[in-house]
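INFO  loader      accepted 1 record
INFO  loader      residues=341
INFO  predictor   begin
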Amino acid sequence: MDLVKSILEENEGKEDLSKSTKVHKNVELDVDLGTLLASDYNALDAKALKSKPNSYLKDLTRDNVQLLINGIWELPVERVDEAIVAKLPKPGYTLPRSRVIPKPKPLTKWQQFAKEKGIRTKKKGRSKLKWDEELKKWIPTYGYKRVNAQEQKEWLMEVKGDTSLTDDLFAKEKTAKQERQSKNELQRLRNIAKSRNIKLPRVGLPTREHFPNSQQLSEALTVARTSTASIGKFQFRLPKEKDAKGIAKEITRMKKKRKAPPLSFIEEKLRNKNLLDSILKSNTKIIRDDYSRGITEIKQSTTSGNKKRKGALKASKTAKKPKAGKGKRDLHQKVGGRKRR
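INFO  predictor   done
INFO  writer      dumping tokens
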């Protein structure tokens, strides 16, 4: 408080063109200094608000802010780097947040390793440029200009004994660099997925570490074969290779194989017969008693029925034919009815 009094005494002799710091209110403001909140419960002047709304609202806001600042000056203060800082008390109101409290960002794989080993990165004070003795100039330590400087340095490459003279070593180095970059990018994406507990898609890597089970290995083979544009239609299959069970739901555009329609009536009849045989051989309960017999009994009954039908047909052929002319009308005889004209 001595510091505040000294500042006010210094400014007493100067002309003060602003308004007074003393504000009178019929109802005192409810001030919460912890959240810097001031609630004014006084009634508004309806006439002044209608006649001069902008000036009235400005004056009202100025008076309320002045009362809030007066409350801040009453708090204990201290000087920090040529600035006066007030220590705010604990807030009395809990203000609602517009958004959820942000969660701490999970550490990456490298950050977790550095934390366990106690490795500290020295980014502060590190210069972007570095003097190169070969080029005799300052080159950047990172960025696109560093690549140009590296190409100027490595303009000559040594041919080793196992390489042929026709091979382009610069092209090989470029492809190897691209492979390393893609590998690092894949590892970075895996680390992000691991930190966020995201399940990665299945990858066709047939090793015992990844696929200890034969079912998992068959799933990996199916995924690898159907990862082409034609969904594995033109890919060669291994002998006795089949699609994994339940994999059609997980792979997009992959449909279950349907049997081709029968080409003839005999083939359709054979399929239906095989279906009935499989139903009768199974241990399932059948509601109808007619189909509870064995296959041989059904065959015998069908053969006996066919013989009876053939015998009936033969008997019908040997029987006497009915006389013709019965039921036909004789046109010469007179028949009653309306006379036609």
